[in-house]
Amino acid sequence: MSGNQRPKDSAEGSSRSGSDHYQPQPAPLSRYESQKRRDWNTFGQYLKNQRPPVSLSQSNCNHVLDFLRYLDQFGKTKVHLHGCVFFGQPNPPAPCTCPLRQAWGSLDALIGRLRAAYEEHGGSAETNPFGNGAIRVYLREVKECQAKARGIPYKKKTKKKTQIRARNEANPPMQSA
Questions:
Q1: Residue 177: its pLDDT value, please?
Q2: From 110's CA, which of 14, 32, 142, 156 has a CA 20 to 30 Å away?
Q3: Measured in whole angstroms, how far is the alpha carbon of residue 34 from the centre of its chain?
């Protein structure tokens, strides 16, 4: 037997695959990577279903906005309309006929994953339709609309600085004599 051949182990049998070479399995994808791949494939399928079909390289922010609106039909978040008696109530006491929409946070996360996937698939950051200003404006409008409809005020993050300043004024640091 030559030096580069190994003896067959008695445990090896005919059930072995046709290849004698070990092929490592790729590491399983993280939850984020799986979602990103699924989102990317879903957007690609959405574009293919357009009439006429649109290639990923030809997609723009208008296609992205249309995709986000299309996804609303699968949403699970009740967004009360201005005429609804429950408009502005975070926990309405009874059901109503207002539409279900995608939650703002879900759309925001989706756009983040699609922005990353676009660049991973060879697109440049400058031409990324998911990073377009129109998308940010749309997401801000959705966030504000949903907050008003559910009576949830979104506060600016600067509030923490104000609270710290107020706390420091109420309890000034002790000075040594």
A1: 46
A2: 156
A3: 11
Structure tokens at 13: 């049998």
Give me the amino acid identity at 22: Y
Higher per-residue pLDDT: 26 or 144: 144
Which residue's structure tokens are 């699970």?
76
Cβ atoms 80, 88 nearer than 8 A: yes
The first and second tokens of residue 121, run together, are: 């698939």
Q: Say how far apart CA 139 and CA 153 lie, in whole Å.
A: 16
Structure tokens at 31: 């939850």
- Alpha-carbon dihedral of residues 152, 160, 141, 51, nearest 10 degrees? -110
DSSP 1-13: --TT--PPPTT--
Domains, the chain, in order of start with CATH, read 31-154 (1.10.150)
What is the Cβ-side half-sphere exposure of residue 85, based on CA atoms within 13 angstroms? 6
Residue given tokens 């790729």 in the structure block: 26
> Using one digit for the tens of pLDDT, what is the confidence trace for 145-169?
999 888 766 555 555 555 555 555 5
pTM of the model: 0.70
Of 60, 76, 48, nearest to 130 by C-alpha is 60
